[in-house]
Design brief:
This protein is α+β, with helices and mostly antiparallel strands. It is built from 5 helices and 9 strands.
Length: 190
């Protein structure tokens, strides 16, 4: 039998609230997703005894990600959290020691599918099976995706900026960054 997550819902929601600054649907969903994910992969103490065993992949850049960060201690700067903004209320929890991973996502629903008058249900009380899709998945990681020091650093032949951990591309015999290769950035030059 797998160990249960070491905290109860009330303790977890209070911790997520303190980190985020309030409680909203995303914090409630993120808290419940985290508790489910950690339990399924056998992580009971994510911020202490198990902190080097856990990696999380979040698929949204909203409140849910704050709850997951608060409860797991995982974050992009430590390379233990990867953010793929697909706009989905979903996260994959990976036990780096055992390789066990599970993806937890909310079931799709339209905004008008709440209670009478379109009100949102109290997500803290909705049964897990009515709210979430939980799937065992396999996560393949390359050495350059793991936590720790950068494995390789190169300079972009086009813009001159540094590139770490095999995020570069070879083009016409030169090493360049992805934005230069794609000739686009998320910003425009002023």
């Amino acid at each position: 039998m797998e160990k249960k997550y070491y905290q109860d819902y009330e303790t977890c929601i209070a911790e997520a609230k303190a980190f985020h600054g309030g409680v909203c649907a995303g914090i409630v969903l993120g808290t419940r997703m985290t508790m489910i994910g950690l339990e399924r992969i056998g992580i009971t103490d994510p911020k202490n005894a198990d902190k080097k065993k856990l990696m999380v992949f979040v698929e949204i850049d909203r409140c849910c990600a704050d709850a997951i960060t608060a409860l797991t201690g995982c974050r992009p700067g430590k390379r233990t959290m990867k953010v793929y903004d697909y706009g989905k209320m979903a996260a994959t929890f990976l036990n780096l020691e055992t390789g066990k991973s599970v993806r937890v996502s909310t079931k799709g629903r339209r905004k008008d599918q709440g209670k009478e008058g379109g009100e949102m249900p109290d997500f803290s009380k909705v049964p897990e099976e009515d709210l979430f899709i939980v799937k065992d998945v396999k996560v393949s990681l390359k050495p350059e995706d793991m936590p720790g020091r950068p494995l390789r650093r190169v300079v972009c032949a086009s813009c001159g900026e540094g590139i770490m951990d095999a995020r570069d591309v070879e083009e016409n015999g030169e090493t360049i960054c992805r934005p230069c290769s794609q000739k686009k950035n998320y910003y425009a030059m002023a």
